[in-house]
Amino acid sequence: MLDHITIDVADLDTSGRFYDEALRPLGITRLYAFGEKFIGYGNGKKAFFWIGRRGETPTRAHIAFAAPDRATVDRYFAAAIAAGGREDGPPGLYPEYHPHYYGAFVLDPDGNNVEAVCHLPPEAGGDGPTG
Fold first, then answer.
1. Sign of the CA dihedral running 78, 92, 86, 29
2. 51 DSSP β-pair partners
3. With CB atoms counted within 10 Å of each terminal CB, which end of the chain scores lower, N or C?
4. Whole-Å CA distances, 3 to 6, 42, 47, 48, 127
5. CA 58, 50, 84, 23 torsion: positive or negative?
6. What is the pLDDT of residues 54-79, one digit of tens each?
7. β-pair partners for 128
8. 52 pairs with which residues across the strands?
9. What b/e string do you get for 39-75 counting C-beta neighbours within 10 Å, with b at 16 or more?
């Protein structure tokens, strides 16, 4: 089981502004900042997603955040694009993963693929108001 993850970013301020907006629809907010080195995101008091400037060339990552329903995936996508992200797969079903995989993929300022996904079928409440 994972406790937390940190990804490297080229510009902490730019990436911080992106993640502040993109993660808000998922209920994930900025909890901590350690100078010019790290920003921690989570809910409650626990930061589980960190971005950091370590002075190295950032590597590309794929991170998927769980969403409670498809409407939240849609809101995440809109917020992430508005925050400067680039589309890497619009909100929708991706049945190649499984029949109810509803996801949206956005590239952050460093090219990391950041996804929100709902795995629930419509009859289990995964449909939300977007159908």
1. positive
2. 7, 39
3. N
4. 11, 11, 9, 6, 29
5. positive
6. 766 667 899 999 999 999 999 999 99
7. none
8. 8, 38
9. bbbbeeeebebbbbbeeeebeeeeeebebebbbbbbb
Contact call for residues 52 and 38 (beta carbons, < 8 A):
yes
Give the Cα separation of 101 and 94 in Å (integer).
5
Q: How far is CA 16 from the centre of its chain?
A: 12
pLDDT digits (tens, 9 = 90+) for 9-43: 999 999 999 999 999 999 999 999 988 899 999 99
Percentage, residues of the chain above pLDDT 70: 90
Residue-range definition of the domain harbouring residue 82 = 5-53+61-130
CATH number of the domain to which 14 belongs: 3.10.180.10
Annotate 39-104 with DSSP letters as a single string. Answer: EEEEETTEEEEEEE--SSPPPP-EEEEE-SSHHHHHHHHHHHHHTT-EEEEEEEE-TTT-TT-EEE
Please give the structure tokens belonging to residue 77: 């996508």
